[in-house]
Amino acid sequence: GQNIDQPTEMTATEGAIVQINCTYQTSGFNGLFWYQQHAGEAPTFLSYNVLDGLEEKGRFSSFLSRSKGYSYLLLKELQMKDSASYLCAVMDSNYQLIWGAGTKLIIKP
Amino acid sequence: GAVVSQHPSWVICKSGTSVKIECRSLDFQATTMFWYRQFPKQSLMLMATSNEGSKATYEQGVEKDKFLINHASLTLSTLTVTSAHPEDSSFYICSARGGGEFEPQHFGDGTRLSIL
């Protein structure tokens, strides 16, 4: 079966760095997306990785290792507004998005 | 860019009522639109995928006659929940994608549906 694993919840301190991991087993791979979802709101697109390596976009970076079936989202200089759920989604060989359950990130002052 | 508008944002209605939700891509042409539902503290569950001018493809377990999807143009898709019951209460979210499969999906703000 197809599976996306990410931690249910993480806590970090304002100003710090946090890494949210995502591992996947899917039938084929056509890229991995990260989305941010604030409580009661729809997801917003953060990043897309299809090749191995690190993609940096401001305070957020996303890393992919296809051989390990692994990705992480790195958030630097954490702000209170970063408190949200972070969803990992993998596009399989049929171009279907397989969604993880999301990681709820709690930022403390 | 890539703005998706979803309307209404909140619906409360009696059991047996049919509810229509609209999803519009405001500044791009959406070749494909997706409808999701999300229960509290759970992940997104894809209900159906629709391409403009063709019938929607429903996920396993989603009733086609209950959740009617129309994708009449490159900027508009509608989801009608027919004869809604309390168990249909959920957060319904649409997304739209322009271009090919590798383009990200852009989400509407969601519709919170409460059936009394």
SSE order of chain B, one letter for each helix or strand: EEEEEEEEEEE
Give the low-pLDDT segments of chain B. none
Poorly predicted sequence stretches spanning 5 or more consecutive residues of chain A: none
State the separation between the terminal residues of chain B, measured CA to CA: 37 Å
Radius of gyration of chain B: 13 Å
Give the number of helices of chain A: 0
Q: Count of helical segments of chain B? A: 0
Q: Fraction of residues of chain B in helices?
A: under 10%
Distance between the termini of chain A: 40 Å
Structure class of chain A:
mainly beta
Characterize the main sheet of chain A. Answer: 6 strands, mixed
Tell me the number of strands of chain B.
11
Strand proportion of chain A, as a percent range, falls in over 45%
Mean pLDDT across all amino acids of chain A: 94
What best-fitting shape of chain B do the alpha-carbon axes yield?
globular
Approximate shape of chain A: globular
Question: Helical proportion of chain A?
Answer: under 10%
Provide a descriptive summary of the structure in words.
The complex is a heterodimer of chains A (109) and B (116). Chain A is mainly β. Chain A has no helices and 11 strands. Chain A starts with a strand and ends with a strand. Chain B starts with a strand and ends with a strand. The chains are: A mainly beta (109), B mainly beta (116). Chains A and B meet through β5 of A and β9 and β10 of B.
Give a quick rundown of the structure:
The complex is a heterodimer of chains A (109) and B (116). With 109 residues, chain A is an all-beta fold. Helices cover 0% and strands 57% of the residues of chain A.
Helix-strand layout with pairing:
The complex is a heterodimer of chains A (109) and B (116).
Chain A: E1 3-5, E2 9-13, E3 18-25, E4 32-37, E5 44-49, E6 53-57, E7 60-65, E8 70-75, E9 84-91, E10 97-99, E11 103-108
Parallel strand pairs in A: 2-11
Antiparallel strand pairs in A: 1-3, 3-8, 4-5, 4-9, 6-7, 7-8, 9-10, 9-11
Chain B: E1 4-7, E2 10-13, E3 19-25, E4 32-38, E5 45-51, E6 57-58, E7 67-73, E8 76-81, E9 90-97, E10 106-107, E11 111-115
Parallel strand pairs in B: 2-11
Antiparallel strand pairs in B: 1-3, 3-8, 4-5, 4-9, 5-6, 7-8, 9-10, 9-11
